Amino acid sequence: MQVNSKTSEKVVEKKQALEFLEPISKRYLMVMNIRSTCDEKGDRYLDPMWAKDLTEHFKYLKDFTLASPCQQEKSPENEIAVNREPSFSNVEFIDLPCPNSYKDAILTLPATVAKLWSAIGKADIVHTCVAGWPIPMGWLVTPIALIQRKFYVLVVESAPWRLEPGKTIKIKDKIIAYVSEIVNRWCVNNANLTIFTQSEYQQSLLTKRQERGHIIHASWIDEENIISESDSAQIWHRKISPSTKLKLLFAGRLESSKGLLVLMEAMKILDDKNIAVNLDILGDGSLLNQCKTLSKNLQKSVNIQFLGTLPYGKEFFRLLQEYHAVVVPNLSDEQPRIVYDAYSQALPVLASNTDGLRDCILNDTTGVMVNANDPVALADSIEWSAQNLPRLESMGKASLQKAHSMTHQQMHRSRWELLLKMLQSSKV
Fold first, then answer.
1. Which of 85, 119, 191, 379 could form a disulfide with 154 if both were Cys (CB 3.0 to 4.6 A apart)?
2. What is the mean pLDDT of residues 292-311?
3. What residues contact residue 323 under an 8 Å CB cut-off, 6+ apart?
4. In this structure, are 374 and 248 located in the same domain?
């Protein structure tokens, strides 16, 4: 597939604009629950997506230290040996204990706090989050940063402590959710700068000093992943004909919070009505076998295929181009990255009207939104889509325009601008 010269020039211009950032020379410490792995040779491994995100930080943070749990084991599959990557050559790592349970977390708490106290003492800026298991790092970092009077940055990307709608809740889960909401709100209100990925997180967690909170949506797409308008037109021309059967993709973890069982129930409704739909499910998880069993009961017009897993990269983006829309029937309030992935390939999104999705989908423009946990409403939106493929194409083109302003690099540029502005006003 050829990319036209004007698109190539725009990509180069945007890359240059993002590369020439005024560097921040302050000692920057990031404390996260995301684990690294060290093997017997001393090589350090990170998840590829996590490594990619860290690399973007290095473009504007010149003195960077990462403190995170580290586990010792043999070389893991599908992870990157970052000590062999030139971009990580100047990064300092602080290995924290790696607990596997709440009990382990309590037993290793003194060692964790001691390492954090020392690391925070050497830093000018401290960055952490309020999500993570078994104990969010923000709970430990916040009091230390306040005591040591450090400039403190908090990023709220998800709220996994909140109770899942429609799920049977145990008393233990209710207590954890209640305590977590209180403690996390305290952490947010004491940060010098808090970045939220959606407006609801800001509204519910930041109750003081509103000027310190900012919304920057999370995106992982790169400019080179975004197809051109001419490519979009060609792809959609191939996908639309009078006899075309609607083709949808679900991509994500196969678990209840993703609304997968709601989607399967919607498929049953469509099959009973003899509405022709092809649904591909990409991912793995605890509901895989149950979904396969349910799919076998569809005997009329609905066809479901299970594609397994696929690494995030060029092949994944090429796969997206085969579909008319991506379906995101989430029950939780998180903001899935698949939305902007879909936009990059000129695909609209059929989604639940949740807080996280409402922030990044414009109803009837870049997608169609329905009530969460409502299989009938979801089935109706899919039936409408099958009958209105030209409207999906129009939404796809609008989504493509949105993608250009929502790249991973642009997300980091927005974070850098905020950080620089806050540092200047705080005289750190």
1. 191
2. 92
3. 247, 248, 249, 280, 347
4. yes
> What's the rounded Cα separation, in Å, for the pair 395 and 40?
51
Same-domain pairing of 273 and 207: no
Structure-token match 């889960």, residue found: 173
Instruction: Extract the tokens encoding 281.
Output: 């499910």
Q: According to the model, what pLDDT value does residue 8 have?
A: 45
* pLDDT tens digit sequence for 101-141: 999 999 999 999 999 999 999 999 999 999 988 999 999 99
On whether both 233 and 127 belong to a single domain, the answer is no
Give the helix/strand (H/E) hosting 248: strand 246-251
Grouping H, G, I as helix, E, B as strand and the rest as coil, residue 421 is helix
CATH number for the domain that contains residue 68? 3.40.50.2000
Mean pLDDT of the chain, nearest integer: 91
Shared domain check, 392 and 356: yes
- Name the domain count of the chain: 2
Confidence of residue 1 (pLDDT cuts 50, 70, 90): very low
Q: Is residue 1 part of a domain?
A: no
Give the mean model confidence (pLDDT) for residues 383-411. Answer: 95
Token duo for residue 98: 């790696």
- Look at residue 280 and tell me whether its pLDDT is greater than 90: yes
Residue 169 pLDDT:
83
Summarised one tens digit per residue, pLDDT across range 189-215 is 999 999 999 999 999 999 999 999 999
Instruction: Say if residue 266 is in the same domain as residue 297.
Output: yes
Contacts of 246 (CB under 8 A, 6+ apart): 276, 277, 278, 324, 325, 382, 385, 386, 389
Give me the mean pLDDT over the 59-63 stretch.
93
Q: Which two tokens stand for residue 35?
A: 């684990």
Identify whether residues 189 and 137 lie together within a single domain: yes
Give φ, ψ of 185 to 5 degrees: -65, -40
| All residues at 6 or more sequence positions from 105 whose CB lies less than 8 Å from its CB, including other chains | 99, 134, 135
Domain range for residue 287?
223-403
Identify whether 192 is part of a domain: yes
Position 10 in a domain: no
Look at residue 68 and tell me if it is in a domain.
Answer: yes
Same-domain pairing of 255 and 339: yes
Cis ω before 134 (30° cut-off from 0): yes
